[in-house]
Amino acid sequence: MKELNKNEETVARHYDSVAFEYEQQRLAMSASVEFAITVRYLQRYLPASARVVELGVGSGQYTEVLAQKGCWLHLVDVSERLLDSAVARLERAGMASQILDSQRASATHLPHLQTESSDAVLCLGPLYHLCSLADRKLVVREVARILKPGGWLYAAGINRFAYLRDTFRQHPQQGVERWRFCTQLLRDGNTDSEHTPLLGPGHLTTSEEFGDLFRDSFDEEILVGLESFTAGSQEIFSSLSTENADAWLDLVEQTGKTRDGLGISDHFLYIGRKRA
C-alpha cells in the first residue's frame, strides 16, 4: 500500500485530533438536513446488498445506513481513528459482518480494490480535502476504475460562497483583515487551517466546477444543493415532528435542484453513473 503524502498525513492528523469530536457530532447536531437529504438519495438509487466503497467514513453514520440496507462495505479513510470509530459503530449495532475490509489509504490510490468490482462509491469528504485539481482528477479516475459499468457515484463538495456568508456573519469587522484570503478563495477555492480550523486544508468548489469534474467518465443523474434554504438553520430540523420534517425535506429536495437552491447551499451532492 502506498504511503500517504505530506498533505494527506496533515489531513489525517487533523481528523485524528482537532476535528475528531466535531466530526462525531456534526451531522446530528448541525447538519441534520444535509444528512437526511443524502440518506433520501442513498435509499432512492442505491441497490440493496450492493458492494459499496466508502471513501472517507467520517462519523460512520452513512456507514451504518449502508449496512442497514444490506450493503457490503469497503471502508477507506486517511484517519485511522475515524476508521476505528466507524467499525466500532457497526460492531455496537451488530452489523460488523457487513464490513469486507477497512483500509487506511488515500482516495487517490486504491490498489487494494479490484477494477470494476463495486456497485457504488461514496465520496462524501475526500474531494474537499484535495487542493490540487490533478489530485481530485486522480480520485475520479480511481472511482471510475473500481466501479462496474453503470455503477453509482455519490460525491460531495462544499460551496465556497458558504465561507464568505459565515465569515460575514461571524466576523463582520474583519473584512479588511480577511479580504486577501477571500479574494484568493474566490479564485482557486483553497483553504488552510488558519482560516478554516474545523475543515483544515481543503478545497471549496462551485456547482459548475464540481459537475465538470465528473463529466469525462460519468453520466450525471443529479447535482443538488443538500441544504437549500435551510443552510445556516439546520439545528431547527431535529425539533420537528416527523410530518413537519418530511414536508420541509420535500421542499428542500425540490428547491435544491434549482440554480438558486444550489447557490445558497453549504454542500453539493453529485450522483452519477459510470459510463459503459
Detailed description of the structure:
The protein has 276 residues and is α/β, with parallel strands linked by helices. The chain has a single domain (6-160, 192-274), classed as Vaccinia Virus protein VP39 (Rossmann fold). 45% of the residues lie in helices and 20% in strands. A seven-stranded mixed β-sheet has the order 3-2-1-4-5-9-8, with helices on both faces. It has a two-stranded antiparallel ribbon with strand order 6-7. Helix 7 (160-170) runs antiparallel to helix 8. The longest helix is centred in the C-terminal third of the chain and has 15 residues, at 242-256. The protein is globular, with a radius of gyration of 18 Å. The two termini are 29 Å apart.
CATH topology: Rossmann fold
Mean pLDDT: 96
Termini separation comes to 29 Å
CATH superfamily: Vaccinia Virus protein VP39
From the alpha carbons, calculate the radius of gyration and give it in angstroms. Answer: 18 Å
Strand order of the largest sheet: 3-2-1-4-5-9-8
What is the ordering of alpha helices and beta strands? HHHEHEHEEHEHHEEHEHHE
| Secondary-structure-derived class | alpha/beta
Helix segment count?
Answer: 11
Low-confidence stretches: none
Estimate percent helicity: 40-55%
The assembly state of the depicted protein chains is: single chain
Counting structural domains, the number is 1
Number of strands: 9
Largest sheet: 7 strands, mixed
